[in-house]
Amino acid sequence: MARKLPARSVSVPKPMGVNFCGEPVPVESGAVAHNLSMALMRNVASQNHLINFRRRAISQYFPIIEPILKKYRIPDDFKYLAVVESGLKADAVSHKGATGYWQLMPETADELGLKRNDKVDERKDLIKSTDAACRYLRILYRNLGSWTMVAAAYNGGIGRMQSHMKKQQESNYYFLSMNAETSDYLYKIVAVKEFFQFPGQYLTNNLMASAGNSYERERAEAIAKGLIPAEEPEPVGLAIEPKESLELRFETASVDSLLGTLSKLKASNAVLFKGDVEAELFKPGKVAIGQTWEFKLTKEVVIGDQKLGKNDVLYATVDDVDRQSGQIFLRSTKLVADADKKAYKLTLICLNPQTGLAGVPLPKADQLKPGGRTWMVGWKVL
User: Fold this and answer.
1) What integer pLDDT is reported at residue 168 of this predicted model?
2) How far apart are CA 113 and CA 125, in angstroms?
3) Beta carbons within 8 Å of 319's beta carbon, 6+ residues apart
4) Nearest partner of 49 among 184, 211, 198, judged by Cα
5) 225 SS3 class
6) Residue-wise pLDDT tens digits, 82-117
7) Domains annotated on the chain, with CATH
8) Contact between 333 and 317 (Cβ < 8 Å)
9) What single-letter DSSP state applies at residue 240?
10) What are the two backbone dihedrals, phi and then psi, of residue 195, each rounded to the nearest 5 degrees?
């Protein structure tokens, strides 16, 4: 009897190197490491196709997607969401009716101003659908404050994500109990990102050798195995509207009804969500995107293996200001210890205790003045 060969293993990258949009993937958790390893293994199993697909994505599709993401201040990692959603196929259609590169549902496409009729479906237009998806992602971020949660909500729906967070008293995606599709979603995206950025870590020696061969040879091999069609369509959208003429459209009247729908999802009698850290504002900046605000911790707290002290300073950046709802979105990525004045990397979002989400009511005018009333807020570690 032939000896059964062990399965080829795929090592999970070091914890500090694994992130989505700069937000860490907690691979120090055994369950998270296992889930990511399984997603990477699935990539390895189809790596013949991925070598070829990666080359086409980088040369044909990403140069179109990346500038639009940048204009809307969407992290570059979201281009991998389109890879997972549709395989970058214009005519991809889900069983629920989601269509196009970004798998937008008909009603969402209508809300975002995309044309759909017998002659045209702009969900299949790479430029216009990416522009629409970015506007939708900005809306989700305004409500959730974490790019990881935005990606999860893109797949599972913001109402469902809020329900999970409320019932489970947990706002970290990786520790929420959800349906299999949404639970696996971020792992698929992170695995694709890892493969695209570091293909040499996941390819066998034979495939690494073939990667140096001509594009046509790889394409012929993939076609022979039925992994890609013989005729690959060009990206849709370039001839319809050149990039130079595409206007930047932030959340405006075209998505007002969508914003209204999202606002209704918040529970009127929500339980209180407790943050990991409590801090007091002591040096406010301007109420404008990109401004820095400084907060002091009110007591000692231990997060993981890191001990934070009373009066340690959080440096927070204003991510967004929603004048319509009267909310401000703050994110901290740096802490300076009061004891030794050393700076440490620590990513937190300012947490609304009523929703468990980012976005807290703007402080009153007297809370922004020196010697004014105290403004105390909770923070959640990402």
Assistant:
1) 82
2) 13
3) 141, 145, 289, 329, 330, 331, 358
4) 211
5) coil
6) 999 999 999 999 888 899 999 999 999 998 999 999
7) 15-262 (1.10.530.10), 277-381 (2.40.128.260)
8) yes
9) T
10) -65, -40
- In this structure, are residues 21 and 77 in contact, taking their beta carbons and an 8 Å threshold? yes
Q: Render pLDDT for 13-44 as a digit per residue (tens, 0 to 9).
A: 443 468 899 888 887 777 788 788 888 877 76
Q: Are 173 and 148 in contact (CB under 8 A)?
A: yes
pLDDT for 360? 85
Q: Which pLDDT value is given to residue 283? A: 92
pLDDT tens for each residue of 39-88: 887 776 666 677 888 889 999 999 999 999 999 999 999 999 999 999 99
Report the DSSP beta bridge partners of residue 327: 322, 361
How many C-beta atoms lie closer than 10 Å to residue 184's C-beta? 18
Whether 164 and 144 have beta carbons less than 8 Å apart is answered as no
Rounded CA separation 14/29 (Å): 12
Please tell me what DSSP assigns to residue 7.
P
Q: Which DSSP string do the residues of 14-64 spell out, in sequence order?
A: PGGG-EETTEEP-TTSHHHHHHHHHHHHHHHHTHHHHHHHHHHIIIIIHHH
369: left (phi over 0), alpha (psi -120 to 50) or beta: beta
Distance of CA 341 to the CA centre of its chain: 32
Residue 51 confidence (pLDDT)? 81
Ramachandran region of residue 185, left (φ > 0), alpha (ψ -120 to 50) or beta?
Answer: alpha
Spatial CA neighbour of 131 closest among 58, 71, 57: 71
Q: Which of the residue ranges 89-93, 102-106, 154-158, 240-244 would you say has the lowest mean pLDDT?
A: 240-244
Backbone torsions φ then ψ of 24, nearest 5 degrees? -65, 145
Query: Is the pLDDT higher at 50 or at 192?
Result: 192
Kindly report the pTM of this predicted structure: 0.59
